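User: My advisor, Dr. K., asked me to get a structural model of this assembly before our group meeting. I'm new to this, so sorry if the format is off. These are the inputs:
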Amino acid sequence: MLLAERQNHILEQLNIKGKIYAAELAIQLKVSEDTIRRDLNKMGEANLLRRVHGGALPLQQTSPDYIDRLKNPDPRKKRFAEAGVLLLKAGQTVLIDSGETCLYLAKLIPTDLQITVVTGCPLIACELSHHEKVEIILLGGRFFKPALRCVGKGTIDMLRKIRFDISFFGIYALHLKHGFSVNYFEEAEISQVVIEQSDKIVVMGGADKLDKTSSHQIAPVHALDLLITENTADINVINKLKDTGLEIIKV
Amino acid sequence: MLLAERQNHILEQLNIKGKIYAAELAIQLKVSEDTIRRDLNKMGEANLLRRVHGGALPLQQTSPDYIDRLKNPDPRKKRFAEAGVLLLKAGQTVLIDSGETCLYLAKLIPTDLQITVVTGCPLIACELSHHEKVEIILLGGRFFKPALRCVGKGTIDMLRKIRFDISFFGIYALHLKHGFSVNYFEEAEISQVVIEQSDKIVVMGGADKLDKTSSHQIAPVHALDLLITENTADINVINKLKDTGLEIIKV
DNA sequence: CATTGTTTTGCATGTTCCTGCATGTTTTTT
DNA sequence: AAAAAACATGCAGGAACATGCAAAACAATG
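Assistant: The format is fine. Below is the predicted structure of the whole assembly, which you can bring to the meeting.
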């Protein structure tokens, strides 16, 4: 196994489990603990994880709380959401995915706009409970904590009964060849159905998410309609995405 | 469990409960009290919390909560919830209704208790997203803002597929003759189904809610199993409720 | 292909850190 | 004032660690 491959595996595990033990990794990857320790130390210095005695934790483990993060909003994500909310028109039925950018989007919906919002994320439902004119449909099902949203058969059954004028997603990874992808199978499964049921798909994400891949593909690029990203995004990547027919807004 | 992980957990608990006891943490985290004390002392020196005899307090009373009401917690409702949470046993499937008392109940579920919680209230789902061992099933449907919960056919369909070992409700009105009732038809409709599907029904509410009526009956008193109320409740009313077979806990 | 240099890895060494227990002290409660 | 709870301290075993070194793996060069 290659060094880089091993370190990728470590990051993946960390993402999934939220913590990792050096001893456990040594067995899993069939190398000595010393090697793992050296990996963890290097990755710690590179600010890819938080090195602690016995293993490592994700960088932001201290406040994985979306609610906390909303107090220190990422200005980029806020701008994406601001651009996104302009696409909404009265009377529409809109799906909003989970994630920080989508949460901003929900927050920014004008209180006097009469639309129906469908979401599997209870945080977004709570956020919208102050919007008197917004009708909220919550997708039920098993609550999947890593993505803060509902997943599973129940969720999909509910989804299939609804058609959306427009759907919004935050981007975890978007790649010209490998499409729009995320870390968890359960998430991908749901999003695929959403895309089938939607007239228009809007994805929002920064330059760091473009030309990146993840394990579970949701859809190829040509299934998407509009990308909201930032000015700093690589112009070559942007142009190639445009060539597939994807409309692009830079903020 | 990693040291850093443990300290994260302590901070989280502190955020949620507003206070922590060293002895309690030792049991929860399965380490000796000495270890907890050392953690607390270190974190105190690092200015992450205020160390006090017996445990620790947050630096400044923060309440990152969505509902404004929670900022001025009603100590009675907190006590009801404390009594309620003692009824939970590992492996159970539990329904938790919406409302302030129920929200406290959710907050107070031990983080190491492995249960399945079903709720139609997204707030409760968010609250429980920190509880690693708790499986959450969110009842979807149309979000009914006055009651901060989901209602409607979709919700009922999901409900009918689940049986509950125990169900918890906050009381809006409980009357010897007119039973357990609420203000909204939609709410009553859901709660009726819940009661059909539950082995045990627990209702929680103060003296002001007893001997009171509201427009939509959920169930007669004899359909309920346990009432958690306060000492100040009228002894005559209590006795008459007892005569119907209702078990009563006063806190 | 052989050689050279670099990087990575596992092992051995000694060190540091974490934890639980025992001891005695302080604080709180009765 | 006595009892109980919470505490501080020191100690010991074990786990995790850093370090140096040599073998192995790899890449690059002639």
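One thing worth pointing out at the meeting: Residues 3-17 of chain B form the longest helix (15 residues).

User: Perfect, thanks a lot.
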